[in-house]
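Box S1 | Example of a co-folding query
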Amino acid sequence: MKFYSTNNPPSHKATEGKKIHFVDFRTALLQGLALDGGLFMPERFPKLNKKFLKDISKKEFWKIALEISKGFIKDIPERELKKMLKDAFNFEVPLKKINENLYILELWHGPTLAFKDFGARFMARLMNYYLRREKEKLNIIVATSGDTGSAVAQGFYGLSNIKVFVLYPSKRITALQEKQMATLGKNIVSLEVKGNFDDCQKLAKQILADKDLKEKINLSSANSINFGRLLPQSFYYFYGYAQLLNKLKVKSEKLKVIYCVPSGNFGNLTAGLMAKQMGLPVKQFIAATNANDIVPQYLRTGKFVSRVSCKTISNAMDVGNPSNFARMLEMFHGDVKQMRREIIGFGVSDKQTRETIKNVYRKTGYILDPHTAVGIAAARKSNILQPIIVLSTAHPAKFREAVEPVISKKISLPPQLKKIINKAKKATLVENNVETVKRIILEKYGHIKKTA
Ligand SMILES: *Cc1c(COP(=O)(O)O)cnc(C)c1O
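Box S1 (continued) | Returned holo structure for pyridoxal-5'-phosphate
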C-alpha cells in the first residue's frame, strides 16, 4: 500500500503528468506529515470482503482490527500485528441504548478515558516496533487541545527510543487533563504554551517543517494528522456496527448505519469515511461541532472559512481550522456536493449542550460528557428517525467541572483518574514562539540523530 500527500494528489488535474511522490506505510507513520506539508492518504482503500461483513457481528474487536490493518500494513508479520492489537485494545468498547433510536458507542474505557487512546496506543506500538527493528530514535511533537496530549503521553510513556513533546494551551484545558499529561516526566516533555490550541497546532506544524531541526533530529507528529492514528479509529466504526446488528437482531445486508461524530479536528469523522470506503454500510454521517462550526458552515455555503477558535465547554473540539479537512476534501475530490451526499453537519451551542446533558440525565440516568452531548444534540437536530450511533468520546469525569453543575450531582472518579489526582505538575511554561520551542527541543531534550 502506497501513500501520497494531499498537497500533490494523483487525482488532481493540475498535477497530471507530474511525478507523484509515494511513500510506504512505515514512512507515513514515522514521518507524520508529508515533506511538502500535506497529509498522507492511501492510494486506495482495501475493500473488506462480503464474508467479513456477513460474520462481523460475531467477531471480537482485535479480529476486526487485524483484518483492516492487514490491508494497509504489509511489512509486519501477522502474529506481531495481532500481539500489538490485543495489547493496544485491552479494554471494552460497549454500545449502549439510550432510547428508541439512539445508541452510544463508549470509546472511553482506555487508560485516559477518551477515544484518543485508540489512535495513540496503536501508533505507539507500531512506531516502537519499527524503531526497535531499525535501532533508531525519534522525537514526537504533538499539539493538544486536551485529550490528545494525555493519550499520546500515556501511550508513549516509558519507551526508551521515543521522546514526546506535548504542546498544550495554558489555562485552556481542565485540571485533570493537565494532570494526565504534565505529571509523567521521563521521556514525556510537557510544554505549556501561552496561547490557544490553534497556536499550539501552528507551532507543531512549524517545528515539523523546520529544515534545520530535521537535519539534526528525527521528528514526527502524533496529531490526528498522522495516518497511524486514523487507521485504528476506523476499527470501532465496524465494531459499533457489529454490535448494532446484534442488538437489532438483523443481518448485515439489511442494515445501513448512521453515525454521529462529535468533531474538532475531524480525524474521527475522517476515520469513519475511511471505514465506509472499505465497505462499511453507512447511510449517513452527522458531523457534530460546538460553536466552532467551520465544517457545518462549509456544508451549508460551500465555502471553507477558518477562524480563531472560540472557547466552549466541549474544549477538545475548540478548533478553528480543522486539520483533517484536507483529507475530507481529497476524499470528495474537492466537491462540496459530493460531501453533502454523505455528511450533514450541525453546530451546537453550550446552552444546547448543557440542556442535552440535563435532559438525558433526567430521563435515563445516563451522564454525558460535553462532547458526547454535542453529538446527541446534533443527532436530535437531524430529525432522523432511524437508529443512530453517537460516538461517545470521553468519560464525563474528565469534564466534571462542566457536567456536575448541570446535573447537580458529583461524578465519582474512575480509578484511572484517582491515581494521578495528587501528582505534581512537571511542565515548562513557554512563549508562543517557534524559536523558543525549537531551542528547548534542541538544547534540552531532543534525541540527536545517530549520524549527527
Ligand atoms: C479530540 C476530541 C474530539 C474531536 O475529535 P476530532 O478527531 O479532532 O474531530 C471530540 N471529543 C473529545 C473528548 C476529544 O478528545
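The pocket of pyridoxal-5'-phosphate is lined by residues 114, 116, 147, 224, 262-268, 316-317, 371, 393-394 (CB under 6 Å). The chain has 19 helices and 14 strands.
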